[in-house]
Specification:
Number of domains of chain A: 3
CATH superfamily of the largest domain in chain A: Hexapeptide repeat proteins
Shape of chain A: flat
Strand content of chain A: 25-35%
Radius of gyration of chain A: 26 Å
Helix content of chain A: 10-25%
Oligomer: homotrimer
CATH class of the largest domain in chain A: Mainly Beta
CATH architecture of the largest domain in chain A: 3 Solenoid
Structural class of chain A: alpha/beta
CATH topology of the largest domain in chain A: UDP N-Acetylglucosamine Acyltransferase, domain 1
Chain lengths: 341, 341, 341
């Protein structure tokens, strides 16, 4: 898709400065951009690279000084750029029409315009909302429901009975609805604690490659609207995640923990079972939250076990100086010993 | 499936108290249960929620005081509830019959009643035990063997030559038998150390979604009976895991480590190569075991590197007070300096 | 495949000592070897096990004393053994011919001798180099390119537009080219920062099961030649990895970090965004590198946050003795208090 600078400015809410008829053909970084590609710069220090770029059209802040370019001025250039990119680079279709090798159970319901790639399997009673695209080898189990406009990349597994809202973007290898890890030991071996609940996912959710979201044991595992999960994330049974929460790669959340809205969780974080993260909680990468703990909103935490970042840094400062503290202690002891004589 | 309270009591070894003809239709949590659904309560403090629940039939301890309900009294209510759940919620079939799109090599052997879902692929010489259900896209490679009563969810990969016992429950995305990570650097690049061994898995094993179990380099990677693995676990080449050991999500075990029976390993744990965990070892989530270390049974360990939990806590107590220790040291130094004058 | 001891010696550059006509049928460990299987021993302390082994033919160091065996003497026995293993155990084919259920778009280009397993899907404009074997359910998206001699195990996903060099070995469940985790929050919800770049992978790369490599946001995520990734590794958008770098299981590398050549990275390592690891960097398992940090080559680092291993050990020594330090401090304080009176 191509747009004129003026069309882009109008659509993304930017103020045009320069030749509005300039035709933009795509997005790029300042270093790699062709003349017709759009770039953005949101800090003073990167203005120079924008200036040097071959790109003619640049999204900038309202007061950035940049000459010889067609400017799209916006309060948040990165956001404006993201909007422009969505226009210039609409996602490629993941499937078109119903591929003859797709297997759709007679009682499954496909909304208008649903597309199924090769070897997709849709089981009995499953429902897929209008316009959804289901990639090759993607599987929608018995009575599972997907909203409208969902996009499933190749080989996504949705177990039977799971519920997913509209416009979900689900990457390859995701598994939604596997049994939670609930066991009872007795009579010399493990029994499975019932894992018969569901997964309920809101609208506008994105789920990264090879991430797994387990069904509730009893009741549901729930993700709100606009939740964003990176790759290889593990969401255990009965976890609850509020709207607009983002979770980076390889993080794991144990059973029954609840996470508020607008939380930001780094990569490789571990959250024990029955924790509660308040709205706006901020967890640094690789930190660990002990089972049952509460994490306040708005205060970044870090460490294993996690503590408020300021406290972590204060402790870490002295931790790194432990050999020095030990030496100082030794000096005092020597002085005291001398005095005793 | 539905059962009367009396039928359940008889089957799960509970003592019935109240109307044995009451018909139970499923399992639920106290909060969500309908009148006909079974709940359980195993601690004094949750009796109130059981009392308030719409559920009529409750599994309780032998001496719990709960009126107005049909009671199933059992020494271990959670275990009894798990048994009842297995009766009330038998797992849905993962495949029925041999789907016409399943591809079965002529020399593969399917036991009686084996079911293959759409697009399953069973290669030459593979053997699948009676009654096993193989979900869509699941792949059983050349000469691999599965015991009776196995259940493979959609898209499980069993590489050629791997061995799996009876009643395995394997979730979507699992990969069994990929090459171990064995490399030899020489002549300016990596050579592959041979990864030609197998995986041998006992009976009654459960493997969570997207978990990977590598083949032995030479010899076998082995999992005993009743081993339970959560999601996204990594088991490297030649690891040996004893019976009844449970491993939580995102834990990784490096090459040639041996783990005894009845070990309990938390999530995101890292175990170096050539470690030995004794029977009954208990590893807290996110801990790290250095290569070659031994972990004693029965003593919980935590930290990176891991130490016995009691020791960990003792050190951590002072770690968190490091700024205070540093201040106290400074005070002593000031006093000593004053005295010197 | 079988070879005589002389043939092996010639091919792997070893010096034969003993009966060159002895026929070797495979590789094994000293404990499990049959008489006709090759073993190796590269340290004095394992000579005894080699001596006891049924194996007749042994790869040893130039000066090892081992009698009654056919010896293949090499400076690096493990390397020589790896070379012999590659001859004795050529990998089994992952596909043969073009399976009738493979779906190949008309505009896709398959090199000579390309084999496609059941249910492989090759989309429009994709190119696959000569002799490559594509396992069942493996997917090569629109305009993606694979070099010659690649081996894709069952169900690998290569998103459209990605580039992979020659002789890649890719295990089951790998996802190459999913969207990076780039988000912009504005107007009350997340917008996707454009994820329209590619992945460019060199020659002779191996990628372990269920590993994910995200496409660049703008520009490319790049892996050099001879890069080796273990299972469940996460490579974020725009990461750059130099030649001959090896990364163990469950490690994650955040966006735009650059890693030099011949780096060795342990398992469960976390590397923040915009880090730079120099050539030959060595990262201990489970360590964490803060965003933007530089890691020097040749100096092992460990800890969270990581520091040079020698420094880590020095600090850790005192960390483990914190209760003792606190006690010593208390003694000094008591003495000082006494003196004050």
């Amino acid at each position: 898709m191509t747009f004129t600078a003026r069309e882009l400015a109008d659509q993304i809410g930017a103020i045009l400065e320069g030749d509005g008829s300039f035709r933009v053909t795509g997005c790029a970084s300042p270093e790699d951009a062709a003349a017709s590609e759009l770039i953005f710069v949101d800090s003073e220090k990167h203005l120079e690279s924008a200036s040097r770029s071959r790109a003619v059209c640049v999204v900038v802040t309202p007061d950035a000084a940049l000459s010889g370019k067609v400017l799209l001025r916006a309060a948040n250039p990165k956001l404006a750029f993201a909007k422009a990119a969505a226009m210039l680079h609409p996602p490629a279709p993941l499937a078109q029409g119903i591929h003859p090798t797709a297997i759709v159970a007679p009682s499954a319901k496909l909304g208008e315009g649903v597309a199924l790639g090769p070897y997709a399997v849709i089981e009995d009673g499953a429902e897929i909302g209008a316009g959804s695209q289901i990639g090759p080898y993607s599987f929608v189990g018995r009575n599972a429901k997907l909203g409208a406009g969902c996009r499933l990349h190749p080989r996504v597994t949705i177990y039977g009975g799971m519920r997913i809202g509209a416009r979900a973007l689900i990457h390859s290898g995701v598994v939604i609805g596997a049994d939670g890890f609930g066991l009872v030991f007795g009579e010399g071996h493990y029994f499975k604690f019932p894992q018969i609940g569901t997964v309920e996912i809101g609208d506008d959710v994105e789920i990264g490659a090879n991430t797994t979201i387990d069904r509730g044991a009893l009741g549901a595992t729930r993700l709100g609207n606009d939740v964003k999960l990176d790759n290889l994330v593990h969401i255990a049974h009965n976890v609850q995640i509020g709207d607009h929460t983002a979770i980076s790669a390889q993080t794991g959340i144990a059973g029954s923990s609840t996470i508020g809205s607008k939380a930001i969780i780094g990569g490789q974080v571990g959250i024990g079972d029955h924790c509660h993260l308040e709205d706006g909680a901020i967890l640094g990468s690789k930190c660990g939250i002990l089972p049952g703990k509460i994490v306040r909103g708005g205060v970044p935490v870090w460490g294993i076990p996690a503590k408020p970042l300021a406290k972590f840094k204060e402790v870490q400062f002295w931790h790194d100086r432990l050999p020095d503290l030990a030496e100082r202690l030794k000096v005092l002891e020597a002085a005291a010993a001398k005095q005793d004589k």
